[in-house]
Write a structure and sequence with these properties.
The complex is a heterodimer of chains A (about 230) and B (about 270).
Chain A (H helix, E strand, L loop, with lengths): L16 E5 L7 E7 L2 E12 L12 E8 L14 H14 L11 E11 L4 H15 L8 E9 L2 E4 L3 H4 L7 E9 L4 E11 L1 H30 L1
Parallel strand pairs in A: 4-5
Antiparallel strand pairs in A: 1-2, 2-3, 3-5, 6-7, 6-8, 8-9
Chain B lengths: L6 H12 L15 E5 L7 E7 L2 E12 L10 E6 L16 H17 L8 E3 L3 E13 L4 H15 L1 E5 L5 E9 L9 E8 L2 E4 L3 H6 L2 E10 L2 E10 L4 E2 H25 L3
Parallel strand pairs in B: 4-6
Antiparallel strand pairs in B: 1-2, 2-3, 3-6, 5-6, 7-8, 9-10, 9-11, 11-12
Helix pairs in contact in B: 2-3
The chains are: A alpha+beta (about 230), B alpha+beta (about 270).
Chain lengths: ~230, ~270
């Protein structure tokens, strides 16, 4: 695993992370999270009454996520409004966060999580999940734990952590594989698994171990940001 | 969320799965009977019908001339779409697609695209200007669970029999004269497998009732490339988690399942 990365990073080196909590005063909870040049901002509103009424669940509150890119966050201007890609990422983000939030105390309500990408350099869904996890904690929503997310890539045969855009477009050999993962901090429980590329089943097992290590680092950054806001 | 499977059924299924049993007598990881046939429409460049138990999906391939995408000027285009017709289930309604109907073609698209089964670089008519767009359209005809896996098989079966239409002197597509087979890899064709979880039990190929009872799912696209098994796509869904042990077991099961379904599929393919 002696790959030379364009950025000069080591194979398991995450881009510099930045996390800040409490960035949108109107929101019940908010956070910003960055992996290098990928910057995500998230706001939480709720629990609040869910409309339309027929979507309400009398046994629990529900989590509703919305992810999108801002129009100028990418090179070719992104047409504003939801796309199939953003709808899918919104849904997998919801699935990634749901296992740790306990909403049974808030029947018939919704917690809205709004995630927007300010600047994109690959890894936007993982940065978005990390920001949203912080925003939920900041809003004081009952949570079992934080969710930590990272993408692990395979460039030809080499495994690298936190893939950036230049690596996403890698050519040659077995090509690029991008494997975004989210897990419940300090457990063996995975809440997001997505993958595009070419990867041997045996290597998938290795990638989980690498992701575990990286998620520990993400967790430390998240914890620090949350502590800063209470001090 | 409308509840179509009663809590009583869900609890019964939970107990039965824990004992390794299912309503229809299958083992937890067994697939239902697979049937594949071809030529659903002679107007399509290729088409196939897949039955997995009572689930039925048809796939059609159409080719049209178009312009290449700016980021792949020397490649043809692939577009996968699906419509969950109200014909196929009382759950389906007319109108804008629900999440399931958005997710299904995206999962099939990624399994096919990432496996490089279709040799898109051979679908260029005039470099940078005119290329073939391969449309794969997937329609459930009867939904009894596991639509994504059935749809992937239908898509690759349709691709394997698809032909490229001719182009006449004026440069227009001549749909009456198909000359060559669609350029696809001889070795690589993906199959997708979705694992469903209820409690601590993992099952495959669920019926609609079983699928609705489950708390988590994860779909893997797998193919063979350079004689190696390759995972090409993955997506986890629904609220519950998968543990590391569970994912590692899936990695051990997938190659065997891939060989098993391919053996079955081979019997139906035209010689």
């Amino acid at each position: 695993m002696a790959i030379k990365r364009e950025s000069g990073r080591g194979a398991t080196e995450i881009r510099p992370m930045m996390a800040k909590v409490g960035v949108i005063p109107n929101a019940d909870g908010s956070a910003i999270f960055a992996f290098g040049d990928t910057v995500a901002i998230a706001a939480v509103y709720g629990p609040r009454q869910l409309h339309p009424q027929h979507m309400q669940d009398p046994s629990t509150g529900i989590l509703r996520c919305n992810y999108d890119l801002l129009s100028f966050s990418v090179s070719d201007r992104k047409k504003p409004g939801p796309s199939r890609r953003s709808q899918e990422i919104s849904k997998v983000t919801e699935w990634a966060l749901s296992p740790v939030v306990d909403l049974e105390g808030f029947p018939n309500t919704v917690i809205d999580v709004q995630i927007y990408i300010l600047q994109a350099d690959a890894g936007t869904r993982t940065a978005g999940i990390n920001a949203a996890s912080l925003a939920l904690a900041h809003a004081g929503i009952p949570m079992r734990n934080l969710i930590c997310s990272i993408s692990v890539g395979k460039l030809d045969k080499d495994l690298v952590v936190d893939v950036d855009k230049s690596e996403e477009d890698f050519k040659g050999g077995e090509g690029p594989t991008d494997f975004p993962i989210a897990k419940i901090a300090n457990t063996d429980e995975y809440t997001l698994l997505q993958l595009d590329g070419k990867i041997q089943p045996e290597v998938v097992k290795k990638i989980l171990k690498i992701a575990d290590k990286a998620c520990e680092e993400v967790y430390e950054v998240q914890k620090k940001a949350l502590k800063e806001v209470v001090q | 969320m409308a509840m179509l499977t009663s809590n009583l059924t869900i609890e019964t299924l939970r107990k039965m799965f824990a004992e390794g049993k299912r309503f229809d007598g299958r083992g937890l990881l067994d697939h239902r009977n697979l049937e594949v046939s071809f030529d659903v429409s002679n107007k399509a460049e290729g088409s196939a019908r897949v039955k997995l138990g009572k689930t039925e999906v048809i796939a059609g391939v159409k080719l049209a001339l178009g312009t290449p995408y700016p980021d792949s000027p020397d490649k043809g285009n692939l577009v996968v779409s699906s419509d969950f017709l109200p014909l196929a289930s009382p759950r389906f309604e007319l109108g804008p697609p629900k999440f399931d109907a958005i997710e299904l073609p995206r999962l099939v698209d990624r399994a096919i695209r990432e496996s490089h089964m279709i040799e898109l670089d051979k679908l260029v008519v005039t470099p940078k200007e005119k290329v073939w767009t391969v449309y794969i359209d997937l329609y459930p005809i009867n939904d009894d669970g596991c639509l994504v896996d059935a749809a992937t098989i239908a898509a690759i079966a349709a691709l394997k029999t698809a032909k490229v239409p001719g182009i006449d002197k004026e440069g227009l597509v001549d749909y009456e004269n198909h000359k060559i087979a669609l350029p696809i890899s001889k070795e690589t064709a993906p199959i997708s497998f979705t694992f469903y979880k209820l409690g601590n039990s993992i099952i495959m190929d669920p019926t609609r009732e079983e699928e609705e009872a489950c708390e988590a799912k994860v779909t893997w696209g797998i193919s063979k490339w350079n004689k190696q098994y390759m995972i090409n796509s993955c997506q986890k869904g629904k609220m519950a988690v998968f543990t590391k042990d569970e994912i590692e077991k899936m990695m051990d099961i997938l190659p065997d399942k891939f060989d098993e379904i391919n053996e079955k599929l081979k019997k139906f393919l035209p010689k």
